[in-house]
Amino acid sequence: MELRTLRYFVAVAEELHFGRAAARLQMSQPPLSRAVKGLEAEIGARLFERSPAGVALTPVGAVLLDEARALLDQADRLRVRVAGAAGTAVLTVGLLGDSTDPGVTRLARAYRERHPGVEIRIRETDLTDPTCGVHAGLVDIALTRAPFDETGLVVRELRADPVGALLRADDPLARRESLRLADLADRRWFRFPAGTDRRWQSYWNGGAEREGPVVRAVQECRQAVLWNGTVGMTLTDHDPGDGLTVVPVDDMPPSRVVVAWKEKEGGGNPLVRSFVRVAVGAYGTD
């Protein structure tokens, strides 16, 4: 069995849909289907039950998935260790804004334990670039938040966090247990500069055009609310600081923590693949 074919199989097994797996692998669906059928012929058993709604693993497929993941992981660890011994194992990771998320701490610890020979270079960006330099080719992989323009990228969700309105503590709405976006319709919002990814801007503006002060960093968001009484969205579990509070907004979709990378460049990089697997494990403990 070729490792590439096993990677194809794992993608289909995790997505349970050939179309989504093909998109994840940045390839068309016909060669992916042929590769999986060839693997089934080689094994002599069906790996998936196929239906118009998608696919489901057979008992044989479930066993192969466990073994394939272990084998692919070991292959990547081998490449990473060899690169580390050769002094060529460097991975540049983009982080968004305030990187105090405990998931980042767990990920750093887990990756260090697993790959002590890899040098991690961190590039932290402000809120104007949700891809943290991935689109520009400045980093190998980003640990960030969606949504943003995913053209040419592979994006893997790690966690979803509830979102609320950031308000002054003396704001009349601060006494409410929860809000809806309509409650904030006539307020001034902090917003990102012109040219910021429109999907990103729209999400943090509650899906509407807003007026208010322009911000680029988390602290600027807080100061805009504290000094001007404007509003905006933030994570409900973040400490807003003195004089501020967060009220849940019931009709705001959660903020998704994701890893993102360029498939054509990162798909063949064992450092990127290993980072993704470790990140899924680290955030899976939340």
Quick structural overview:
This protein is α+β, with helices and mostly antiparallel strands. It has helices at residues 3-15, 18-25, 29-43, 59-85, 102-114, 198-204, 218-228, 263-266, 270-283, and strands at residues 48-51, 54-57, 90-96, 119-125, 141-146, 153-161, 163-168, 232-235, 244-248, 255-262.
Counting DSSP H or I runs of 4 or more residues, the number of helices is 9
State the order of secondary-structure elements, H for helix, E for strand.
Answer: HHHEEHEHEEEEHHEEEHH
CA(first)-CA(last) distance: 35 Å
Q: Cα-atom Rg, whole angstroms?
A: 22 Å
Number of strands: 10
How would you sum up the major sheet?
5 strands, mixed
Give the strand order of the largest sheet, numbering strands 1, 2, ... along the chain. 4-3-5-10-6
Q: pLDDT average, as an integer?
A: 89
Q: What is the beta-strand fraction? A: 15-25%
Coarse shape: elongated
> Structural class of the secondary structure composition?
alpha+beta
Low-confidence stretches: none
Task: State the helical fraction.
Answer: 25-40%
